């Protein structure tokens, strides 16, 4: 028996198996798609994430009805929390949505696949390298993709910059316009408090080739997380200029900021 079969038998409930099996996601005869997604690995990942999502972070998701049932889609969210829990929580929420459950592909930083074994595991769970060519091919395959345009500027934010959106890259808007893809803006509230970081150890980070090395809690704090999925936004191409793209990116950024502010107003504390 393989390690994957052992983990599947040990961890995956019939309920989780049924959730994944009813999601329309074509894979080959060996259970993989062209980017390494594996159905059994996703079932194991959702089983591991379930207590983290439901019990530890006590996630509430709003606006899941805004997600189209099928077709290409870019899910654009704010990034925070030092570790990539936010992408996993968005992916879990969409895969288990009571409206239109969908498998999502999360774009990850180029640094993560350099960690031994991590790259393959991430690929099997649906994550892919944050590369525009890769992303364009996946959209033409009608995939739903989560992108964090702040990149490490967002995930590695220090405490003094919490809930202040950092500079967005323009790549996602080029893809939305050239691939005729709707955008779902997402505001994430709570991940900023999971690993409060006063400063980074920059010299050590450079020594180990890491994008940042935070001085923070040894494990994420159980802050309550809220996910706000906004209404679809469409931006028609072709791309006329970088200035025009930047203006459209600011419109998405404004929508995400509105969703974040809503979440901050609706919560009564970090853990509630």
TrEMBL record:
A single Gene Ontology CC term: membrane
Coiled-coil boundaries: none
Keyword annotations: Acyltransferase, Transferase
Domain Phospholipid/glycerol acyltransferase: from-to ranges: 73-191
GO molecular function: acyltransferase activity
InterPro entries, alphabetized: Plipid/glycerol_acylTrfase
Entry protein name: Glycerol acyltransferase
Organism: Ketobacter alkanivorans
Lineage, opening ranks: Bacteria, Pseudomonadati, Pseudomonadota, Gammaproteobacteria, Pseudomonadales
């Amino acid at each position: 028996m393989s390690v994957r079969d052992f983990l599947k038998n040990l961890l995956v409930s019939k309920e989780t198996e049924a959730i994944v099996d009813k999601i329309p996601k074509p894979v080959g005869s060996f259970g993989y798609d062209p980017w390494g997604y594996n159905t059994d690995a996703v079932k194991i990942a959702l089983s591991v994430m379930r207590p983290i999502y439901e019990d530890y972070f006590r996630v509430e998701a709003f606006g899941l009805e805004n997600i189209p049932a099928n077709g290409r889609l870019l899910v654009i969210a704010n990034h925070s929390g030092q570790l990539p829990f936010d992408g996993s929580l968005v992916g879990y929420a969409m895969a288990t949505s009571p409206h239109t459950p969908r498998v999502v592909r999360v774009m990850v930083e180029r640094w993560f696949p350099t960690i031994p074994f991590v790259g393959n595991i991430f690929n099997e769970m649906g994550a892919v390298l944050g590369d525009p060519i890769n992303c364009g091919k996946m959209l033409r395959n009608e995939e739903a993709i989560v992108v964090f345009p702040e990149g490490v500027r967002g995930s590695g934010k220090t405490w003094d910059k919490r809930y202040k959106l950092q500079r967005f890259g323009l790549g996602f808007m080029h893809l939305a316009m050239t691939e005729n893809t709707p955008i779902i803006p997402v505001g994430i509230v709570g991940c900023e408090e999971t690993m409060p970081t006063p400063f980074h150890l920059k010299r050590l980070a450079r020594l180990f080739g890491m994008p940042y090395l935070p001085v923070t809690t040894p494990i994420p704090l159980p802050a309550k997380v809220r996910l706000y999925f906004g209404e679809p936004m469409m931006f028609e191409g072709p791309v006329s200029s970088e200035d025009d793209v930047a203006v459209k990116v600011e419109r998405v950024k404004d929508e995400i900021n509105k969703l974040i502010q809503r979440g901050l107003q609706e919560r009564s504390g970090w853990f509630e």
